[in-house]
Amino acid sequence: MDILIPPHTRERYGDELDLDAITESDRKLKMAWQILNDETCKQCGNPIWICRSTNNNIGFNVDSTTCYAQEAIDTYKKNNPGVDSGTAKTFFAKPFTYVDGTTLPSRQDYMELQARSVEE
Ligand SMILES: [Zn+2]
Question: Given Cys at both, which of 26, 41, 56, 77 links 22, Cβ 3.0 to 4.6 Å?
Fold first, then answer.
């Protein structure tokens, strides 16, 4: 199995990552990550056994959500004409909270919110 080393991991551990130090758990995590990637549709993000199924009982409703980070980038580019003049430049959005002393929501917070919206 190919072991892919993400750039941030390479930064942390150096170019000479000790492949012998990779444990069985690491290999299983890598395998799980690969399976998840392989089974997630690159076009729509749904599991491929759903979005590519020929089962006539499966349909799709279209909904939308807003990425406020991308919206901030779009607004920044619109308000700063000429800043987007090179293909080498990448813009990214860094989240913050407006109220001092508060933190960004955690994944747990998100999961609880999702669970509550399903219950309602
Ligand atoms: Zn799909």
Answer: 26
